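Protein in question quoted for reference:
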Amino acid sequence: MANSSPDDQKILIMAQQFLKAIPHCHKLGMTIVSADSTGVVVELPWSEDIVGNPETGVIHSGVVTTLMDSACGISTVTALPEPEMCPTLDLRIDHMGKPEPGRPLYASVAPYRVTSNIIFTRGTAWQNSPDEPIAHCVGTFMRLGKMFGPKGKVSQPKSKSEPGDSAS
């Protein structure tokens, strides 16, 4: 991201703000490694608090799910001109291996289709390289529109429709 554009800088700031607004992400120590128009990379540091099996030190699969869901949700900011409320509709995760104990876990996620109502995302969780995934996910997120106005006041979502939009 050395040659990042002003839009990419805005996306990075929005992704960081999104992450800070999620208490459990803060508690788990997640950070944004990168965020630009192509997607996000989120880091989850290893700690004893997230171990699922104390004998092996392997991260609990529920924590991997939390990382993937959070990264997918954060990635929605890369596809939208302004932040919107986009709750998870569906999330599928294929666990393809177990994380190595004592090492951070990363999630690389990008939206691949955006409609007036839905954002479709996909990504991987990995440690050594994105080419060696530990898990793969696809997620769908409902676009509720810009719901937070000045000073956190909730506004009504706007109804949106596109001709020929089959995802609703």
Q: What stands out?
A: DSSP finds three helices and eight strands in the chain.
